[in-house]
Amino acid sequence: MPSTRVFDALRLPVRFEVRSRAFGSYLDELLGCFPTALEAESVFEVRPAPTDDDRYALYIGEELAAEGDREVALLGPALQALNAHAARSWPGVACHAGGVAHDGNAILLPADPESGKSTLTAGLVRAGLQYLSDETVAFRPGENMIEPYPKPLSLDTGSWHLFPELEPFADLPDDDYKQDQWHVPPDAIRTGAAAGPCPARLLVFPKYVDGARTELSPIGRAEGLVELARNTFSFNERSRFALEELSRVVRELDCYRLTVGNLDDAVARVNDLVDALPRFAHG
After folding, report:
1. What residues pair up with 254 in beta bridges, in sequence order?
2. CA distance 58 to 265
């Protein structure tokens, strides 16, 4: 059975075992910015569906995660499952957020689903910032240091017109892999776009509002802490630990709300903040 290399996804070593070599090659391409690990701890396997051999199923170990009429239709569920497992296994705090970096500074973009954080993240990377993640910002335990999670960016249909150059074209038997979302590896936006570990310096909460004027407003750190906690994975399961970690981090950050009516204007507002930051160098 074809399989991918072993990916290090937030220190979770993962391998995909699939039915077709073409699908495995495409996963290797999409996840190409993840480091390589030596041995898989988790295996995501595509098998015949349990009730119908003509359908496909995604298993994580022996747990059934998703089914589809075609193997490529499992791409979205496979990436979502990878996100969930990586965030859940991370020993520090992981937040539902985009993240970009510039000159050793990380800018965090926590937001609810459908708030436009992936669109804004893609716009910032296209404008020259480096990519940390569009889904999961992970703090190293006891540190204000972000561990990169360079998954492919997930662009919904509403933002495709903003990035026509990023439409994926894969050597696969049909277009199910891009029917509802485009999955875009960061290097497709710009070669060498993925960032290394770096400390958080800015906290910006974006929200897309159709027809609104793009506005950036400072908020207090207490309000920023509440919003960041609300966008933290598994917060209720270890709330005391998460709150202590986030409180320490937020004390070092400037916090803002960003109403996004126009992508170019939003990118400009964030870049204004970035330009005012000191420069740091971190490996």
Report:
1. 202
2. 41
Partners of 183 in beta bridges: 154
Give the dihedral sign, CA 25/196/276/128: negative
Q: How far apart are CA 240 and CA 139, in angstroms?
A: 16
- What would the pLDDT profile of 239-248 be if each residue is shown by its tens digit? 999 999 999 9
Contact 82, 187 (CB under 8 A): no
Token pair for 84? 């969930």
* pLDDT tens-digit readout, 93-137: 999 999 999 999 999 999 998 899 999 999 999 999 999 999 999
**pLDDT for the residue 280:** 54
Query: Tokens representing 133?
Result: 């993640």
Ramachandran region, residue 142 (left: φ > 0; alpha: ψ -120 to 50; beta: rest): left
Alpha-carbon torsion, ordered 197, 200, 204, 206, to 10 deg: 20
